[in-house]
UniProtKB/TrEMBL annotation:
MF annotations from Gene Ontology: 4-hydroxybenzoate polyprenyltransferase activity
One BP annotation, GO: ubiquinone biosynthetic process
UniProt keyword annotation of Cell membrane present: yes
Protein name: 4-hydroxybenzoate octaprenyltransferase
EC number: 2.5.1.39
Pfam family, one: UbiA
Gene giving rise to this polypeptide: ubiA
Subcellular location: Cell inner membrane; Membrane
Needed co-factor(s): Mg(2+)
Length: 291
């Protein structure tokens, strides 16, 4: 289908960038904000906050575009994705590639304002953005690659603020990593029946009947590492109330996914932004000069 009206083009570009589905943006933003606040134990500068927030938006959008380009011949067979712009032929592959490159160019301009060490980590992030869409074809662990990709903003933020990578940074990295793998496994449970038909791999398929148990284990690991961050940085006790709030949300998610119904698995996945928000509020209050 040919695009004629500029407004229609804009809507389609927004769809392929998932602007109408900001959940993924916030899931990438929360750990970035955690690290920005914790690395300096205070509110970061407006400039740093702007650069990282816009960078998260552009890289998340670029990741969505390249994922759709790579998966365009698979998405047409999956109920949840068959109406996306590329499988439905509402946008050409050429236009999608140009959009992807434009988003990467903006990201490149942003990262060039940072320290050289931060730039080096961004190169690794770019490589993972390009590699991740292919992982489901060759391995059952695409969620692990996403976990690394969605956690790289943590050392980047730490380097930019303090120019070092202390133990607390890596504790936060692994706390976020296990959280990402857990919620992306929930997300994969939504498409599991379609993925099995077309031969696409995921941790949801690998874990099989142990999926909910392993998700619980990953979530507990995440909370354990986050608790160690609080201990290492001597955070205010209010941070541990945030950890408790996250634990309660995880329990609720397990209530939702117990029967593995696709709509309830997606609902559980969508609740993870509340986890990120609660942890951020706990960190922000713990590093506040008012406490």
């Amino acid at each position: 289908m040919r695009d004629i009206l500029p407004v229609r083009n804009l809507v389609i570009y927004c769809q392929i960038m998932r602007i109408h589905q900001p959940g993924g943006f916030f899931l990438l933003l929360w750990p970035t904000l955690w690290a920005l606040w914790l690395s300096g134990m205070s509110v970061p500068s407006v400039k740093v906050l702007f650069v990282f927030t816009l960078g998260v938006f552009c890289m998340r959008s670029a990741g969505c575009v390249i994922n759709d380009i790579v998966d365009r011949n698979i998405d047409v067979y999956i109920q949840r994705t068959k109406n996306r712009p590329l499988p439905s032929r509402n946008i050409s592959v050429r236009k999608a590639k140009l959009l992807h490159l434009s988003l990467l160019l903006i990201s490149c301009m942003l990262v060039l304002t940072m320290r050289m060490t931060t730039i080096l980590f961004s190169i690794l992030g770019l490589a993972l953005t390009w590699v991740y869409p292919f992982m489901k074809r060759y391995t059952y662990f695409p969620q692990v690659f996403l976990g690394i990709s969605f956690s790289l903003s943590i050392p980047m933020a730490w380097l930019e603020i303090s120019n070092r990578l202390p133990i607390a940074c890596w504790l936060l990295f692994f706390g976020n990593f296990f959280w990402v793998v857990s919620y992306d496994t929930q997300y994969a449970m939504v498409d599991r029946s379609d993925d099995l038909k077309i031969g696409v791999k995921s941790t949801a398929i690998l874990f099989h009947k142990y999926d909910t148990l392993i998700i619980a284990f990953l979530q507990l690991l995440s909370l354990m590492f986050l608790t160690l961050v609080g201990w290492k940085l001597a955070l205010h006790s209010i941070f541990y109330f945030a950890i408790l709030g996250a634990f309660i949300l995880f329990v609720y998610q397990h209530f939702l996914i117990t029967n593995r119904q696709e709509d309830r698995c997606f609902k559980a996945f969508s609740k993870n932004n509340w986890v990120g928000l609660i942890i951020f509020v706990g960190i922000a209050l713990s590093t506040s000069s008012f406490l």
